[in-house]
Amino acid sequence: MAVPRPALAPVLDAALAAPPPELPAGCQPDRRRRREGRRFLRELPAECAAAAFFDPQYRGVLDRLQYGNEGKGRGRGRSALAQMPEETIIEFIAELGRVLRPSGHLFLWIDKFHLCAGDAQKWAEGTALRQVDMVTWDKGRMGMGYRTRRQVEHLAVLQKKPLRAKGVWSARDIPDLITEKVPRGGHPHRKPVEMQRRLIEAVAAPGELVVDPAAGSYSVLESCQLAGRTFLGCDLAG
């Protein structure tokens, strides 16, 4: 006897019933591509994605905290990446707000410095995005710090209006503090694949688009492959 399929949340049911968005030529999903992220986002149709991730390479830590390791030792890999001024981050978030469907989610990586400055919501001013939650990633290793040493990063959860959890966020077992170690070496900003997978499954139905315009190590691509969702993204380094 066939096992009844669990009912999906209303928004996810509607997404499954809707035809997949028509993507422009050159935007094949589930692959790496070398592109400038803002230009890539502008080519995508409006409201085509269920979720998006954005890990901006901000200069706040390098310029204002001035740890003195720019271009040296362990800081060499980070400082070699193309840094984003605040105006560029704001442009990215505006485009991400455009490509997200109504009630879609943007997962914005942010460190303690920018979190305390209230930058997540400030960067989203003028868009339909509002911060509705936050998840903290415990990396299991201490990093830099003049006083306390940085061992966590924060993932600001922004949602496009209309703001609602019921019928949009399907998981009820995701804590707001998740510990996950990532391998050393490789990309200096590799993010936790399993944590991202759980978040993707919570807000996107199987096959739906998840966008990442600054993909870095392509950990979101890995997460989408595990979750059975469709990745669409790029990075300056390819």
Automatic annotation (TrEMBL):
Keywords, ordered alphabetically: Methyltransferase, S-adenosyl-L-methionine, Transferase
Enzymatic reactions: a 2'-deoxyadenosine in DNA + S-adenosyl-L-methionine = an N(6)-methyl-2'-deoxyadenosine in DNA + S-adenosyl-L-homocysteine + H(+)
EC number: 2.1.1.72
Keyword match Methyltransferase: yes
Residue ranges of domain DNA methylase N-4/N-6 in the record: 144-236
Record bears the keyword Methyltransferase: yes
UniProt protein name: site-specific DNA-methyltransferase (adenine-specific)
Organism: Candidatus Amphirhobacter heronislandensis
